Amino acid sequence: ECDEEILHGKYGQHLSGHKEMKDRELYSYINKGGRPRQHLLSLTRRAQKHRLRELKRQVKAFAEKEEGGDIKAVCMTLFLLALRAKNEHKQADELEAIMQGRGSGLHPAVCLAIRINTFLSCSQYHKMYRTVKAVTGRQIFQPLHALRTAEKALLPGYHPFEWKPPLKNVSTNTEVGIIDGLSGLPLSIDDYPVDTIAKRFRYDAALVCALKDMEEEILEGMKAENLDDYLNGPFTVVVKESCDGMGDVSEKHGSGPAVPEKAVRFSFTIMNISIAHGNESKRIFEEVKPNSELCCKPLCL
């Protein structure tokens, strides 16, 4: 009833401007027959642009006003919110990782854990890394050099520590040392390989590293015994020392010195940890598989 002449295709847009009008739905245009409206994702790119042109204009205006013109960030955030509203958190996490430049790959420490727990040598892991990258086109696993960097955090000497009271006759230097493996052996042994070398860790540095590595298990055990705030100790740590042959390691690649054909590892396993609480001792950790090489902490290679 406004007596305006408008194009048939623009009638719906014109009607939406008449907010003051009562019984507006009586005037609304009914599409009788014709093709059903296609789903947005099934349209061609040109048709998608055509259908979304008004929304795109609004997003552009918002981005210029609020986000310094970053339309991509606004659209990505809208997409993330839509995914999370439908509880599709896995897809949202992957998208968020890509947006932040992290990619959806595994953390180097996780890759290192996979390599060790599946008993893969460095060359076997590298082959798997290359295959997965070629087949999927994504770098899900991390390259070997990233694993080696992550491994440094697990080696003795990485974590600074201080014994209270200080230990007697123990060097404060926590560096890893290469020593002559023949030191202390009688010189009369002829068949012993002359070029034996060893990579030795200081015992206290190795123990501190092992305990630091087990921090989560220790805290979980304390929580289970309702000792959340009781961190003073004293702690009693029971250690089993062991020595095992590592077989032929000539094929294994590492960043250390060249190793002769056979290697031996001197190691220890943390069997259990108890904490003195009043007049009793509460056990907060116990190794479930004490004979597994996965819980062996190296002392000397």
TrEMBL record:
Residues in the DNA-binding region annotation: 33-100
Ranges of residues in domain RAG1-type: 1-22
Gene Ontology molecular function terms on file: double-stranded DNA endonuclease activity; histone binding; protein homodimerization activity; sequence-specific DNA binding; ubiquitin protein ligase activity; zinc ion binding
Residue ranges constituting the NBD domain according to the UniProt record: 33-100
Listed InterPro entries: RAG1, RAG1_DNA-bd, RAG1_pre-RNase_H, RAG1_RNase_H, RAG1_Znf, RAG_nonamer-bd_dom
Cofactor binding note: Binds 1 divalent metal cation per subunit. Mg(2+) or Mn(2+).
Keywords annotated in UniProt: Chromatin regulator, DNA recombination, DNA-binding, Endonuclease, Hydrolase, Metal-binding, Multifunctional enzyme, Nuclease, Nucleus, Transferase, Ubl conjugation pathway, Zinc, Zinc-finger
Reaction equations catalysed: S-ubiquitinyl-[E2 ubiquitin-conjugating enzyme]-L-cysteine + [acceptor protein]-L-lysine = [E2 ubiquitin-conjugating enzyme]-L-cysteine + N(6)-ubiquitinyl-[acceptor protein]-L-lysine
GO cellular component: DNA recombinase complex; endodeoxyribonuclease complex; nucleus
The organism's place on the tree of life at top rank: Eukaryota
Swiss-Prot/TrEMBL cofactor(s): Mn(2+); Mg(2+)
Single GO biological process annotation from the record: chromatin organization
Record carries keyword Ligase: no
Cell location: Nucleus
Record-listed E.C. numbers: 2.3.2.27, 3.1.-.-
Family: Belongs to the RAG1 family.
Function: Catalytic component of the RAG complex, a multiprotein complex that mediates the DNA cleavage phase during V(D)J recombination. V(D)J recombination assembles a diverse repertoire of immunoglobulin and T-cell receptor genes in developing B and T-lymphocytes through rearrangement of different V (variable), in some cases D (diversity), and J (joining) gene segments. In the RAG complex, RAG1 mediates the DNA-binding to the conserved recombination signal sequences (RSS) and catalyzes the DNA cleavage activities by introducing a double-strand break between the RSS and the adjacent coding segment.
Domain-related comment: The NBD (nonamer binding) DNA-binding domain mediates the specific binding to the nonamer RSS motif by forming a tightly interwoven homodimer that binds and synapses 2 nonamer elements, with each NBD making contact with both DNA molecules. Each RSS is composed of well-conserved heptamer (consensus 5'-CACAGTG-3') and nonamer (consensus 5'-ACAAAAACC-3') sequences separated by a spacer of either 12 bp or 23 bp.
Subunit structure and binding partners: Homodimer.
Record-given protein name: V(D)J recombination-activating protein 1
Gene: RAG1
